[in-house]
Structure formats: C-alpha cells, structure tokens
Specification:
The chain has one domain (about 5-475): Alpha-Beta Complex (tRNA-splicing ligase RtcB). Strands 7, 8, 9, 11, 15, 16, 18 and 19 form an eight-stranded mixed beta sheet that branches. Strands 1-2-3-4-5-13-12 form a seven-stranded mixed beta sheet, sandwiched between helices. The longest helix has about 35 residues, at about 275-310. About 35% of the residues lie in helices and about 25% in strands. By secondary structure, the chain is an alpha+beta fold.
Length: about 475
C-alpha cells in the first residue's frame, strides 16, 4: 500500500480522509512496515465500507488486515439503526462466528513430550478435521433447531461440556434472537453431520506451551504461567454458516436498489437493519453464532476425552471463548452519549476493556482475554482488552497473523508432506488429512504474527499478556 495516500495519526494509526462517497474517514492500525506490506485492496475495501449508509465514526482495519470479501479481513465498522444503518453479510463473512477458545491443562512441557505422538494421534482420532469432515453426532430437525437456539448451552445440556464453561464464553454461550426458521433446509442439511468438527482452511486445534509472559499481573488473573501447556481451538459454524452467508448475500444484492442503496462493491451487499431482510439475516446469523458456539463446546468435550485417555483424571478448564466473524448490537459512547450500534467484526476480535459489564467478574479488573492465533511453527498470543480500545475501535483487536499470500500461491511454493516433516524435526507434531491443506496454511503464507500483535499492543487495541508456541497441531 502506498503510504503517501495516508495521513499519519501516530506511529500505529493511519487515516484516510473522506473523499468521494465516503461518509466517514477510514482508520488503519498498523506499523509503517505493515502498512507498506498491505495489498492495495485493503485501501480500496476499507474506504468502500466508509461509504455504507449509517456508518458511525470511521471504517477500521486491524494490523492483520488483508483482502477479503467486501470488507477487508480485519475490518471493523459500526452502524446506527436510527440513521438508516445497514447489516452486511459480507461484513460478517461466510464462516459466521468463527472464533478461538483456549483451555488450561495444568500440564508442563516434559509431560507432553513423553507422550507427544500418542497424544497427537488421539486428538486426531477423536476430532474430525478437513473439507467436508463429519462427526458421530447426527441431528434430526428438532435437535437442529434446539441447537441453533441454544448454542453452547444446548451442547452442555446434551452432555457435551461443563456448565461452568458457559460463564467464560462470549454471550454466556448462547446469543438471543436466533431464528432457526430463517435458516434454509439446505444450510441445516449441510450441518447435520458436522457438529464437533474442525473443518478446513485455517482452522486448527493446537497444544501449546507458554514461552513468554509480558504482563505478569494480568497473566496471573488469567491463570497463565511460564511453561504452562494450553490448548487452543479455532473453528466456526462450518457449512451452515457458509450457506447462510451465500444465500443472504444474493438476497441483499437483489434488493439493494429497493432500499435505495448504491453499492460501491457488489460484495458489500447489505440491507437496512430494521428492514424485513435485515431482520431475517440477523435471525439466521444469530442461529449460526449459536451453531459455532455449540460446535466449539463439542470439540472441547472431545478434546477432554482425548486428554483423559492419556492423562487420567486431568481437568481442562476454559480460559475464554471469543468470536471474530460477527455482528452484534452493542452500547458505545458517541460524543459522550451511549448509543446502540451494530458492530461488524470480520476477522477482528472483540477486546473489551476492564470494567465492561458483559465480562465475567474474574476479568473485571484485567479486561477481556483476547485470543490471537498464529501459524504452525511460529506462535499464538493471549492479550487483554483495554479501556483505550473502547474508544479507538469499539473494543476490537486483530484476530491472527493475516495472510500475505493466496492459498494457490502457497501450494506452488510449499509441499505439505515436506512441511510436516520439517516441523516434526522442530518438535511440532502435525496431523492433517490433507497435505495440500497444510501447504495452503504454510507459515510463510502469513505475516509475522509477532509484528502484528506488537502493533495491536502499541496502538492501544489490546495489551500483550503471553506468547505460546505449538507442540501439536491438528489441521484441516
């Protein structure tokens, strides 16, 4: 990206002043080097979002921003329903409520190293991964609708998880307002056998060790110590979410003119929040959010079973679960007045600061755990939300490293089997049904996650707490 097209606000904040049909400025949070490495499509997409009806304050891009569908991945925008604000399926994405949860194990690295192959094999056996992967759960129509309404709460009630997990999940594991009737039969059919599965792409389950602590006080609050073993799970709403996104994007595109919306990009198809179409999408999207929350809860249950096989009596406690492809109504201060806004986060993680009423009591002083995924041979990070972030970007932060290369380019440069062997030599066990999928997700296809996280920290979006490196990775 041409840095001369931007106005420097600070070393980690850059502004694009309103021009043409932009209603608000665009703000990019990144270091100078990250800005220069971003593709020009980020500039185009973050400014296109600033043209949408009812947008408030600015269109934002996080430090991991890269080219997405309509919105940039790493995009954040909020819309005022009282000012003709819109809901955009492209602003949520196809993998609705994709997110990350992290579990405590109480183990140390030497305990995992002793059984590393066995544990990797057990996790791979227990948790289906890959394109079209299916599990042992087969939902009938009634059970499907109950799951779409109940989310992780439904999963726990069915015996897949623990009730104490719910207080550590965004929305306490179940978002209100889900409408299963707005989810097509085809979307439900796609999900019928996919509960408790990781899927493909950048989804994973990792066994990780804590290698560095940046903020000891917050780390203690989160229950994190040096050399702890954690488990992180990254997955979403699978085929159901993708189908909902596909169907409603088409509907929104067809109806845009009826609502008087001139789209700067067809991929930004949207509808007024208070329109029938907008309400229908919100009902379907919330059902997909509950699907993703239930899915991660079931994967957690299967993970606990796998660990129990290797470490009898072990207890895996949930640190936190947060989504990064989502839109929700939230209260935010605008010019000193609290307003309800519909905040889109696409490839961006909620990062609420200390004192926010939605956070569990344990995190009231520290802020929300912010879970940032890395790559198979680099690192993941745990951060904490800040009060400053609430004013900067509606309490949002980056969600990962961010791609710097397409999947097709990655497969031309790396071979999956060779990569698996190289990582094994580094002490990282990879299990995947698809060598091609491993090549697509090669670490070199991503930005330097440490640089991205440091930019988020320096920009004030979230505070760095701990760094984790992979020991086992189950990949789709």
């Amino acid at each position: 990206m041409d840095i001369n097209r931007l106005e420097r606000v600070s070393d980690f904040q850059w502004k694009i002043l309103p021009q043409g049909k932009m209603q608000v400025p665009a703000i990019i949070f990144a270091s100078e080097n990250l800005i220069k490495e971003m593709d020009d499509k980020v500039y185009e997409q973050v400014t296109n979002v600033a043209m949408l009806p009812g947008i408030v304050n600015a269109s934002y891009a996080m430090p991991d921003a890269h080219w997405g569908y309509g919105f940039p991945i790493g995009g954040v925008a909020a819309f005022d329903p009282q000012q003709g604000g819109v809901i955009s399926a492209g602003g949520v994405g196809f993998d609705i409520s994709c997110g990350v949860r992290t579990l405590h194990t109480g183990l140390k690295p030497e305990q995992v190293i002793e059984v590393q192959d066995e544990l990797a094999n057990m996790l791979y056996y227990k948790i289906p991964a890959g394109v079209g992967s299916t599990g042992l759960i087969n939902l009938n129509n009634h059970e499907m609708n109950e799951m779409l309404t109940g989310g992780a709460r439904w999963a726990v009630e069915q015996g897949y998880g623990l009730f104490k997990d719910l207080e550590r999940i965004e929305e306490q594991g179940c978002i209100e307002g889900a409408e299963p009737d707005q989810v097509s039969d085809h979307a439900k059919k796609r999900q019928k056998h996919e509960m408790g599965t990781l899927g493909s792409g950048n989804h994973y389950l990792e066994v990780q060790r804590v290698v560095e602590i940046f903020d000891h006080e917050i780390a203690q609050t989160f229950g994190i110590k040096l050399n702890d073993i954690k488990v992180s799970i990254h997955c979403g709403s699978r085929g159901l979410g993708h189908q909902i996104g596909t169907e409603f994007l088409k509907k929104m595109l067809v109806n845009a003119k009826e609502y008087g919306i001139n789209l700067p990009d067809r991929e930004l198809a949207c509808a007024p929040i208070h329109s029938n179409l907008g309400k229908n999408y919100l009902g379907a999207m919330r059902a997909a959010i509950n699907c993703a929350l239930a899915n991660r809860e079931i994967v957690t249950h299967l993970t606990r079973e796998a660990f129990e096989q290797i470490f009898p009596g072990i207890e895996l406690k949930l640190l936190y679960d947060v989504s990064h492809n989502i839109c929700k109504p939230e209260q935010h201060l605008i010019n000193g007045v609290s307003q309800e806004l519909y905040v889109h986060r696409k490839g961006a993680t909620r990062a609420y600061g200390p004192g926010h009423p939605s956070l569990p009591q344990d995190f009231q002083n520290s802020g929300q755990p912010v879970l940032i995924g890395g790559t198979m041979d680099t690192a993941s990070y745990i951060l904490a939300g800040t009060r400053e972030s609430m004013q900067l970007a509606y309490g949002s932060a980056c969600h990962g490293a961010g791609r710097c290369m397409s999947r097709r380019q990655a497969t031309r440069q790396w071979q999956g089997n060779k990569l698996i062997q190289e990582l094994a030599h580094q002490g990282i066990q990879i299990r995947s049904p698809s060598p091609r999928g491993v090549a697509e997700e090669a670490p070199g296809a991503y930005k330097d996650v440490s640089t991205v996280v440091e930019a988020a920290d320096q920009a004030g979006l979230a505070r760095m707490v701990a760094k984790l490196e992979p020991m086992i990775c189950i990949k789709g």
